[in-house]
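Title: [Solved] Alpha/beta hydrolase 3D structure

Original question kept below for reference.
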Amino acid sequence: MSYLSKESTFDSYLAIDPSFWWDNQIIIKKMDAVKTEALKSKKMYISSAYSHKTWDKFVLNRKPQDLFFAKLQNRSLTSPNLKIQYFEEEDHWTVPAISIYHGLKFIYQDSYAIEKE
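Solution (posted by the thread starter after getting help):
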């Protein structure tokens, strides 16, 4: 994941209902080796589909997302650079469109505030 890389080109990220469970939670394990300083200037928005009616991997997906977010918080990485948002009515297939909207709004919240003034 580019977010965890110190050589990353980007400073803002959208993780839309990410599958942190994949490959035995390799992304979560990689976090332990990443220095907190490398993440402090980056923004991360994570969206999570809350409805599990149409996707049987809901439980498999949700717990690692919460664990990833908790690990970031434990490193004192919090608002305004970090946000997780749960969408109760959305599932893994419907959450991307609404996540892009809310994610970009979060990423550009400082620019948006300047334009409103």
